[in-house]
Amino acid sequence: MNSTQNRDARTVTPDRQASPSLGAELKAARRRIGVTQTQLADLSAVSVRAIRDLELDLTQNPRRETLRLLMDGLRLTGAQRARIEEAAAGPATRGMPADCLAPPPAVLEPTIGRERDIEALTGLIRFGGHRLIRVVGMTGVGKSRLIQEVAGAMNVSGRMPVVWADREGGRAGRPADTLQVHLAALLRGDSGLDHLATTFGTHDILLVVPDATMSPGSEAALRRLLMRCRGLHVLYEAREGSSWGAGTEYPVFPLSVGDRTAGPASRESADSPALRLI
After folding, report:
1. Exposed, middle or buried, 193 (CB in 10 Å: 0-12/13-18/19+)?
2. Which CATH entry fits the domain spanning 22-89: 1.10.510.10, 3.40.190.10, 1.10.10.10, 1.10.260.40?
3. Which of 12, 119, 211, 255 could form a disulfide with 273 if both were Cys (CB 3.0 to 4.6 A apart)?
4. Structure confidence at residue 46 as a pLDDT band (50, 70, 90)
5. pTM, full prediction
């Protein structure tokens, strides 16, 4: 096989070295602190049966709250907690052609004041079965930047490759451009469904649709795409007052400016996220 064929055959695959499963990580963490499954159940308020099933890898997609309770019961922090979360997220997308992906635009400036929103949205995507998430809020509140930050974090981590939709479509040259053409058609309510369903398949993919204005036709087409692509997750932006009638809604509120009664020189106001943006 020549170099061109090698380049065209590249795919997004996880590290060849098998990482420990979630069950193995939980069992190792429990044994490190020297407690039984029954004792961990008392510490975490998670049933013994649930703990046993997790350690045996019989539960493949645990709820985020269950994991949080177990990690708190095991007194995990820092890198140990991250290992459990990484194991729960599972391997990155297998077999998705790398040149079909459309990564999000780079974030050039650090995000200020939205750390909790970034963590919460990332958690909704990775845990709990939330496959359709709409970010809502008033104009100028920071929805686009928040979505861009979350998409970038997911893409860089390798937990879930990202396809950033271009509503204008591509040039139909490279595979990624062809993908954008079909995405644009889908968002207009036209064709494109079959091509996208074939491309995405059953892979874990995060499709990001910035500044979405959905027609009834595009809404129905995107729902059908979600039904056909079981690993697909959709994150999109919607203006305040718009309604889609499906999925999980994540509201974004203006940043706090501190206590207005304390005066402009107060330390609380000076340290508020909104003023740190200035």
Report:
1. middle
2. 1.10.260.40
3. 255
4. very high
5. 0.59
